[in-house]
Amino acid sequence: MATTADMRNGLIIKLDGSLYSVVEFGQNKTARAAAKVWAKLKGVDNNRSIEHTWNSGDNIFPVRVERRPYQFLYKDDSGFNLMDNNTFEQIIVEETKVERPELYKEGQECFVLVNTETETPMGIELPPNVILRITYSEPGVKGDTATRAMKAATVETGATVMVPLFVDAEELIRIDTKTGNYIERVKE
Q1: What is the Cα–Cα distance from 179 to 173, expressed in whole angstroms?
Q2: Contact yes or no for 16/61 (Cβ under 8 A)
């Protein structure tokens, strides 16, 4: 059993029969009343986002979740097909449980969040950043580097990423998977 003192970002808790991930939390203290703990929660098994408040010290019910390494094979009508790197067992996860589906390419390593109580997949995450090749980008204009101007570039997965003007087609770039933003060019 855990209490509100154990609250942290990314913790998955069971609340009113559904699973929620803690996105943000904080504590409110007033002069006369007891302290309250609030949290913004994102639904894991549903698409709801809610805010909830507890009295400080109340019990919460965390769910044990494991991050298991998988390899992304391909996407079809049934969802994302993944292979366990240890047992070579294949699973299918629906697209609604996938974080940033536009950044997945075949053969890429990812992590499946598995509820250890029921052994069901709860979602898929990419590593903190991925390296993708730019397939199309408008050429940069010479001398237009004084400002931090950005241009749209299409990567090999079909996603569009804003990149600096000096980045051209056929270059490898590193992309932050949490925000989907360009980080840097990568040497081959």
Answers
A1: 15
A2: no
Tally of structural domains, the chain = 3
The verdict on 69 and 116 lying in the same domain is yes
Whole-prediction pTM value?
Answer: 0.74
Residue 95, SS3? helix
Same domain, 117 and 148: no
pLDDT by residue, tens only, the chain of 188 residues:
788 888 888 888 998 888 888 989 998 888 787 889 999 998 887 778 899 999 888 999 998 888 899 999 999 998 999 999 889 999 998 888 888 889 999 999 999 988 888 888 888 888 899 999 999 988 876 666 666 788 899 999 999 999 988 888 899 999 998 888 999 998 87
